[in-house]
Design a protein that fits this description.
The chain is of the alpha/beta class. 19% of the residues lie in helices and 25% in strands. The radius of gyration is 17 Å and the shape is globular.
Amino acid sequence: MVAITREVSSALAECELTHLRRTAIDVELARAQHRAYERALSDAGYAVERLASGSDMPDSVFVEDVAVVLDELAIVTRPGAPSRRVEVPAVADALKRHRRLAFIEPPAIVDGGDVLVCGRTVYVGRSTRTNDEAVAQIRRILAPLGYAVCAVTVRHCLHLKSAVTEVSAGVLLANPDRVDRAAFGASEIIDVHPGEASAANALRLHDRIIFPAAFPWTAERLRARGLRVEIVDASELQKAEGAVTCCSLIMSERI
């Protein structure tokens, strides 16, 4: 099992923002929190491959946005924010050691944070960072592999995974104010606690969930469902509209 991560840029405070007001970010604290996140991945049995960053890529720690990794291949995205496209080559180089690559082409834009893979169904969020042409390209890439691709409208948040993530096979954690339940068919849905609107982002690993310390009430809901929850502090990355899925690309060895 492999987790690709990317170091926190010295320019993190200059990150792209869509919904949050800009506030001061402590870059050194963000780096410490990111190292703890990587340790949590290592403790879960993942080999962490950390990529370098630079001052020209303030958002690069959010490596998930640059690719979508499936068992059969990885789709290298064309990020919705033009400033982030400089991040793509190094991520593609790292991924080609593990997967065959497919590439999103203009005029499509898509962030990996808008793509939720649940078994053989791939949900793609329509957001300010992902357009309908991207949905069409992902569908063309994945149809021969037997995946169904479903477009989902996202409200009041940056990405689809800001609104919903998978926490167990067939079980989703969601904020119903940000995404319609009906889009996910018969999936079981755990609602975030009403006082924790941004708590829908959880990183599912093979035997546990990595989850932010900022949302203790929702964490209790996950534990009550019988899930093993590993808490990490992501407070500085959250100021940059980041979350726990954003900071890694998770994969098993190539099939």
